[in-house]
Amino acid sequence: MIKITFPDGSVREFPKGTTSMQIAESISSRLAQEVIASSVNGQTWDLTRPIDEDSTVSLLKWDDEEGKHAYWHSSAHLMAEAVQELYPHAKFGIGPAIENGFYYDIDFGDTPVKDADFPAIEKKMKELIANKEAIVRKSISKSDALKMFGERNEGYKVELINDLADGTITTYTQGSFTDLCRGPHLPNTSYIKAVKILSAAGAYWRGDEKRKQLTRLYGITFPKQKMLDDYLTLLEEAKKRDHRKIGKELELFAFSQNVGQGLPLWLPRGTQLRLRLEDFLKKIQKQFDYDQVMTPHIGAKQLYVTSGHYAKYGKDSFQPIHTPEENEEFLLKPMNCPHHCEIYKVIPRSYKDLPLRLAEFGTVYRYEQSGELHGLTRVRGFTQDDAHIFCTPDQLKAEFLKVVDIIFIIFKALDFENFEAQISLRDPENKEKYIGSEENWQKAEAAIIEACQEKGLPARIELGEAAFYGPKLDFMVKDALGRRWQLGTIQVDYNLPERFGLEYTGADNQKHCPVMIHRAPFGSMERFIAVLIEHTAGKFPLWLTPDQVVIMPISEKFNDYAHRVAAFLKRRDIRTLIDDRNEKIGRKIRDNELKRIPYLLVVGEKEAESEEVSVRKQGEGDKGSMKITTFADQIAEEAEKMMNAWNK
């Protein structure tokens, strides 16, 4: 017999070799129908995998993230099986579950897949679902795996197998399809009820632009047809909110092939929006005693060798810049923190000088592969709202919690109410990925966990997601469509101060090494603005929007009055446009509502005579007429109240 411990702490005994499905059946038949995978000692397992030792077991349903992962991982295999039947010469790369659905990288040879082919693949998937094919796990030796996939001419799989250690290799088989895979998976294909192939894109094998480009086939599945229908409706709404589409409509930003891929050009309206966000954060930082600094866009290669960035990212970054001076090399700045470490070193520091908070809206450059670029969310040049806090170990927790407060202020001001915190720690099985001593990592990880506990901030722990120099606290925000985005981040770092030889004189008159906190509440201005556009559908808060008011004269006879009103509002720092086109007023109203301008002012004979404006508010319609001064007071008060809601 083995002892099974459940999440509530209760313990029951079962025969050795019992499966998670049998455990579920022993509790209730309804539960057995709802579970799709299990967590055994913290690892996600197939329901049909035997448990041979005392274990902690949690039964996973669709609503559990790990359950969805197993469901969509099995769905990727189902799609691959359907492709194999329809395209016998197709060769398979990898097919993981992703946040929403799954994909499979496939080499279709000379028969590329088009959107018109998707229904046939979906039909075949449904046929395989109806067969209720069992999904069977099998351990296999490395030599047998190489032989099996080699005989099938599956070169991509053979390459993957060569990188694996013997004794760790498993396959999963359903029907005539066998895949190299760690799992976990559903017990059989009948669990999958609704399927949809979403799109196809190019993807270089193993992310290497020098390797062959495969077809990345994206799909999604659900346990109910209604869930799929709701998701597809959500996708249509997401298309309407796409920041690339709205950014073009509102003339916020653009890209130019002549400038280069992944290098955004900020247009006047977008620049206004961005600068207003920067000014907002600068105002908050001033309250929290930050000092603003500025650093160059490049740095000597040795700077990033010292920091460790060159060793970790050098191969995948922009290549060194060579000057006429022999052996002189520079890099486009991939991070701001090495520069800030050098600022710290300019003068001797005492414990009385700490904490030192250095902030910079610093533009950095990372070489993203062209296939990975996506609007403002994945670019090659972006600006971080970066700051680095140098403090004593005793000050660390208090400083960390102050940064959390700043992030909460920003989320509240911009109506990001739905978010969760994630503590990103080292991968305990792969510590060579990280720099620094074991002691430093233990202290840094403990500091973040303790700070979250003290703040009463629930945070899930993710192993392997830490930065190479330290653990971090990431904030995952859900937008208006329920999509998760990683925005604000706080990182604790004992390592860079050591590598740069930073020190301060303590109260004991001895030299000590400070602790460093990296923080970026927005993350990057580009990504944050992309998320903000999609969250608001381009209807920005009044204090932030590039254009607050548009004045629309009923006819050209009232253009002069419209210009007088505009001049008055601009003197009151109200951002104002005039639409004096020779169009009917109904057309002007419709056009300017599409531009998402919060206030539309109609002026005609009556308004000109009484020094008034007829007010329409975006989404609320006609608000009646009022004096220009009254309107100016109201809009200024509304914007000020929204912008300063945090400072009470």
UniProtKB/TrEMBL annotation:
Catalysed reaction(s)?
tRNA(Thr) + L-threonine + ATP = L-threonyl-tRNA(Thr) + AMP + diphosphate + H(+)
Which ranges carry the TGS domain? Answer: 1-61
SUPFAM superfamilies (alphabetical): Class II aaRS ABD-related (SSF52954), Class II aaRS and biotin synthetases (SSF55681), TGS-like (SSF81271), ThrRS/AlaRS common domain (SSF55186)
The cofactor note from the UniProt entry for this protein is:
Binds 1 zinc ion per subunit.
List positions binding Zn(2+). 337, 388, 518
Keywords (A to Z) from UniProt: Aminoacyl-tRNA synthetase, ATP-binding, Cytoplasm, Ligase, Metal-binding, Nucleotide-binding, Protein biosynthesis, RNA-binding, tRNA-binding, Zinc
What EC identifiers does the entry list? 6.1.1.3
Cofactor(s) listed: Zn(2+)
Domain named Aminoacyl-transfer RNA synthetases class-II family profile is located at 242-553
The biological process GO terms on file are:
threonyl-tRNA aminoacylation
The Gene Ontology terms for molecular function here are: ATP binding; metal ion binding; threonine-tRNA ligase activity; tRNA binding
Which Gene3D superfamilies does this UniProt record tie to the protein? 3.10.20.30, 3.30.54.20, Anticodon-binding domain (3.40.50.800), Bira Bifunctional Protein, Domain 2 (3.30.930.10), Threonyl-trna Synthetase, Chain A, domain 2 (3.30.980.10)
SMART domains, A to Z? tRNA_SAD (SM00863)
Which subcellular locations apply to this protein? Cytoplasm
Query: Which family, according to UniProt?
Result: Belongs to the class-II aminoacyl-tRNA synthetase family.
Tell me which HAMAP family the record gives: Thr_tRNA_synth
Q: What is this protein called?
A: Threonine--tRNA ligase
